[in-house]
Amino acid sequence: MRLMFVTSNPGKVEEAKKYFEPLGVDVHQLHLEYPEIQADTLEEVALFGVEWLSSMIDGPFFLDDSGLFIDALGGFPGVYSAYVYRTLGIGGILKLMDGVENRRAHFESVVAYWDGEAHLFTGRVDGEITNGPKGSSGFGFDPIFKPHGFDKTFAEMTTEEKNVISHRGHALKAFADWLKENLK
Amino acid sequence: MRLMFVTSNPGKVEEAKKYFEPLGVDVHQLHLEYPEIQADTLEEVALFGVEWLSSMIDGPFFLDDSGLFIDALGGFPGVYSAYVYRTLGIGGILKLMDGVENRRAHFESVVAYWDGEAHLFTGRVDGEITNGPKGSSGFGFDPIFKPHGFDKTFAEMTTEEKNVISHRGHALKAFADWLKENLK
Fold it and tell me: Catalytic residues per the record (chains A, B) (predicted)?
């Protein structure tokens, strides 16, 4: 089976292959722009994306969307994490969290798969916002997110370490598990 | 001529009528949801909106989108102003601007009109972010925005005062002026 992953990021495709190769599923990158809507949840964004793309792509495909949700900020930056990273940056988030006691936050990732209809898979990792940035691997807000049960931030982990526990890793695994059942 | 204004806000329709009644154009509210995309500019959001709606609405219609762009924050909150108001609120913006010397900001509004093709009209008002909220009329970030040349915030003005100088007022006027020429 051939499965298209709609993304501009080849690193994500490599990550996905680890989950799908054991199933005999070939993952290929498809670099195609699609509108991401303004919404409160990643599910809404991902669902609109696959439905919008469904008339353009032959065969099964999927895409993903991720965000950082900070409890004390009402879920901000949420689905707008990429934009907020570009404008306010890590410094802006730390300023907003200055003096805030409740540091709880979670990264969430949604995979939307299209095979004639939409199927959504969610992954989540809980943790907290640190007081300052640590580490230099990964991207985005990784340097200020410390997952529960670990003494380091996402940016202090190797890609392999992070992928195992990350929100996207969980979402991809949920998708792969479902596909395994449904390919039988 | 009958012109539909796609909005959930009856107050906006009343404001628009002042510009179009003198032209013999009847403005009617059409309450219809449409996807607002994630983008860097209001123009992109508004353009996607009218094109998306164009297959559903008979006859000419328009919609508008507005945002507050703060220079020192890289344009934040921009097209996401409504979301940021709901999550971070005025307090969050003031916190981000704490100790920031450059207070320059502008409100921008884009009207997108569809008559078989799209026409965009932009209005803008320049000003600055105050150090604290003042006034209670208007909505959103009005209490912390002081337009250039005035000693009060948008929230300290009456609706009539604000409409004359506001970004949306300018965009509606540009649209009405264009329509007047093109109805001849």
Answer: 65 (proton acceptor)
